[in-house]
Design brief:
single chain; eight-stranded parallel sheet; eleven-stranded mixed sheet; mainly beta; about 220 residues
Amino acid sequence: MGNNVTIGNNVTIYPNTIIGDNVIIMDNAVVGKYPTRAKSSILPEVNELAPCNIGSGVTIGTSSILYVNSNISEDVFIADLATVRERVSIGRGTIVGRGVAVENDTTVGAYCKLETNCYITAYSTIEDYVFIAPCVVFTNDNYMGRSEERFNKFKGPHVKKGGRIGANSTILPGKVINEEGTVAAGSTVTKDIEKNKIVVGSPAKIFRDVPNNQLLKNQEF
């Protein structure tokens, strides 16, 4: 544990957890939790996982749960009631909003915003400067079947640098939102989205180009 760490009431920190300097852990948070596997789970049983690693300057909100083998970079803000599962990495300066679920085996880049109650399914990739609005749903299973055929075919979406997704949108398994691609609120993404394009609807279709003044290269951070 680093220097100047603030720990609230009823916090649980599991053994071997690594905590950097100037970290704030609010009431009832759980850090370093080991996953409990349901009898019917399709995930393989894992006996050994690396420790949870919390970088300096991180804030962990009330009643949030961070699992073992999650890696949280410097200055990340995790709001109340969020869940970050095992084998997840979150890049520097990212905001994980209230009630957000980031499932296992997912990578989230730096300076992203995952807003309230969005669901990031397992095996997803989110690059830097991505914005995901409230109640967005990522999916990773094209089958919803009952056969073992699907077990090795799970694949979450991949949102490349600067991608933006509007509220209540659904992104189907394995779809790629290329650099600066933008999804309008309430859309269903059934195909890959081209670079710098805005898509609208269900199924989502190209509406127009992202305006030049909205591109990352024209922003000041």
